[in-house]
Write a structure and sequence with these properties.
The structure holds 2 protein chains of 2 kinds.
Chain A (H helix, E strand, L loop, with lengths): L6 H15 L5 H23 L5 E4 L10 E4 L1 H21 L10 H17 L3 H19 L5 H32 L4 H8 L7 H19 L7 H8 L2 H7 L2 H16 L13 H19 L3 H22 L2 H31 L16 H16 L5 H12 L6 H28 L18 H19 L1 H17 L1 H8 L12
Antiparallel strand pairs in A: 1-2
Helix pairs in contact in A: 1-2, 1-4, 2-3, 3-4, 3-10, 3-14, 3-18, 4-5, 5-6, 6-8, 6-9, 7-20, 8-11, 9-13, 10-14, 11-13, 12-13, 12-17, 13-14, 13-17, 14-15, 14-16, 14-18, 14-19, 15-17, 15-18
Chain B lengths: L1 H19 L4 H22 L20 H32 L19
Helix pairs in contact in B: 1-2, 2-3
Classes of the chains: A mainly alpha, B mainly alpha.
């Protein structure tokens, strides 16, 4: 039990190494076993964190802030659990055959999970950088999985953009260490409150750079143009797993803002008033993008932007209530957009050469089950009652009612819900109702996905939203407890540094 | 000395940014490399410059050099090296797939002669 916080990183890391050594025929079973074990561990962490203590794991038993710590609190456990569920569905979908399109799908997939889990669990921002790089490097490989010139083009843009982002991240870290003399998040929170006047401008710059990097990962408007391009080029299971990647940026921003930035005079108010404004513009851009997209995958990629905008609009307000609402909305939106990416793959394969273009195509052999799945996911993602998307948006709207830009957030969420519902209804009528009857079911280039594993993967993500709706009370209570724990700040700092940290500091000129 | 190093970092960053915005993948890779040099020097500067500080905590040593930025730079160099190697491989593959090394996969047709060639 004491080693539980490190397991979500070690398990996929070990599995990735083992998978590299195994012949390709045995990889699926090992990858699935590793994924199921991670799901169990994530459940264990969730139970462990639910008692309200912040579990700190000191790597090598070095005392903080000198060594690197892993911190498993409610927020980290929640994120790891969401990642594991989404990862299981994406992996099961890939095991239907698309994992054999390239050579190293399974090791890269496990490395990506290790990077994601590490980014959620670490309590040190340089270590966060390292885990970001692990998950990015794995994502570069996964994006290129299957090959083709569209992926190569998207890959170049994605890699260059993220390398530039990494350079910015390192500049920010250099400034943070140069001014504050520490990289441990809890210690940063302590030192940040006592920054001398001369250093304040530099500290504020460093914090702004960090925020910019996280917003690049989260895909906030001026930094979001890469996302639709990349997510539509990636294969379906990869795109589904990528649905949680933008949430890494949102998570890192939330953690840094609440624990570190908001409590210090040098950096308080750094996110106002431009973050809510940009979040609203992101919602608008995602909605318009969904309206303009000609492929269903493009619609879903733009819905990822809408969800990023919604989360950041709530987080930018920065009260425990808005954070709680965002944390109820986050698992919902991640799992549902992931499910939509998988469903698009199912539909595209049934339609043969038409693919997922929103256009009247041949009648679908499995129109009824796929149509039902589409209905559930579309209702959930657009925020129409009665599913969890509606509940999440209502919670966000209630929480931001008294915020300065509350009215605008209401308008953005309501209009975006309406437009998204229209877009998905239009796509549904083209896909399911107005099939061109004279067109015979096309000879399919790729076999339809009817295997047990893919159906189970799709069912898991389709069922996520109804389950989150039925369990709305306990999930919302957990989200509320998570937000309270995060905003209390002191439990986190005390758990990492001890009640009375005795850190000898040397101020270098 | 700090002024000289800061100016060098600024110059490297400026050159890196300029190359990063060029339309050919090769210049972009060079730009990222220059940028990562600038970043590494900046992290190093975070530990403060000193020509005489002792690098090791031997008995009697005073005014030690900060060892942490050195470790951070080492990590950053290794990661940057791996990423650049991957980007070069990716660029070669994209060149093979699309037949051009333009960042968009297809050069604009109205390129003036002598530019971006």
């Amino acid at each position: 039990m004491t080693h539980a916080p490190v397991l979500p990183i070690l398990l996929p890391m070990a599995a990735a190494i083992a998978l590299l050594l195994l012949p390709a025929a045995n990889r699926r079973a090992v990858a699935l076993v590793s994924m199921l074990t991670q799901l169990v561990v994530a459940g264990l962490l969730l139970v462990m964190a639910d008692d309200g203590t912040v579990h700190v794991y000191r790597l090598g038993d070095w005392p903080a802030p000198y060594g690197i710590v892993l911190v498993a609190d409610r927020l980290a456990a929640l994120m790891v659990a969401v990642t594991s569920v989404l990862g299981l569905a994406a992996l099961a979908h890939a095991c239907a055959g698309s994992d054999r399109d390239g050579r190293h799908f399974h090791p890269l997939f496990q490395l990506q999970l290790a990077g994601l889990n590490g980014a959620f669990l670490t309590g040190d921002i340089f270590n966060l950088f390292v885990f970001f790089e692990i998950l990015l490097l794995a994502s570069y490989g996964l994006l290129m999985h299957g090959g083709g010139s569209a992926r190569a083009r998207a890959g170049i843009a994605y890699v260059v953009l993220n390398l530039a982002g990494s350079a910015l991240f390192l500049i920010a870290l250099g400034l943070v260490y140069g001014t504050l003399g520490t990289l441990n998040l809890a210690d940063i929170a302590v030192v940040l409150a006592q920054v001398p006047q001369a250093d304040q401008a530099l500290v504020r710059t460093a914090a702004a750079l960090l925020v910019a990097v996280f917003l690049l990962k989260a895909a906030l408007l001026p930094l979001s143009f890469w996302l639709p391009h990349v997510y539509t080029a990636a294969g379906a299971p990869v795109a589904a797993l990528f649905a949680v990647m933008t949430k890494v940026g949102v998570y890192a921003l939330l953690r840094l803002e609440v624990i570190g930035l908001s409590g210090a005079p040098a950096t308080a108010g750094l996110l106002q008033p431009w973050l809510p404004l940009l979040a609203l513009l992101t919602i608008a851009a995602g909605t318009i993008g969904a309206l303009a997209a000609r492929r269903l995958a493009g619609v879903v990629a733009n819905l990822v932007l809408v969800s990023t905008g919604t989360l950041l609009a709530a987080i930018a307000v920065g009260t425990p209530t808005t954070t709680a609402a965002a944390l109820y909305y986050l698992p919902h939106t991640t799992l549902v957009t992931g499910g939509l990416f998988l469903l698009v793959d199912h539909l595209a394969r049934e339609r043969g050469p038409k693919g997922d273009t929103i256009d009247n195509g041949p009648p679908l052999p499995r129109a009824l089950p796929l149509g039902a799945a589409f209905l559930v996911l579309a209702v959930a993602v657009s925020g129409v009652p009665p599913l969890s998307g509606f509940l999440g948006k209502v919670m966000v709207m209630q929480a931001v009612r008294d915020a300065p830009m509350g009215g605008w957030i209401w308008a953005a969420l309501l209009v975006s819900s309406l437009v998204v519902a229209l877009v998905l209804a239009r796509a549904a009528s083209a896909f399911f109702w107005e099939a061109a009857p004279d067109e015979p079911p096309a000879a399919q280039a790729e076999p339809a996905l009817t295997g047990r594993r893919t159906v189970a993967a799709l069912l898991l993500l389709v069922a996520a939203s109804p389950l989150l709706t039925l369990a709305a009370v306990p999930v919302a209570a957990y989200a509320r407890a998570t937000a309270d724990q995060l905003h209390a700040r002191q439990p986190y700092i005390a758990a990492v540094l001890g009640a009375k940290p005795d850190v000898q500091r040397e101020r270098r000129p | 000395m700090a002024l000289l190093v800061s100016a060098a970092i600024g110059l490297l960053t400026a050159c890196g940014l300029y190359l990063l915005l060029r339309p050919r993948v090769f210049s972009v890779i060079l730009g990222l490399t220059l940028l990562s040099y600038a970043v590494n020097a900046l992290i190093f500067l975070g530990g403060r410059l000193s020509a005489t500080a002792a690098p090791l905590a031997l008995p009697g040593a005073v005014g030690l050099a900060d060892p942490l930025p050195q470790a951070l730079v080492l990590t950053a160099i290794v990661i940057g090296f791996g990423m650049t190697a991957y980007l070069v491989a990716l660029a070669l593959r994209a060149k093979g797939e699309t037949g051009t090394d333009h960042v968009d996969g297809a050069p604009p047709t109205d390129t003036p002669p002598g530019r971006a060639e």
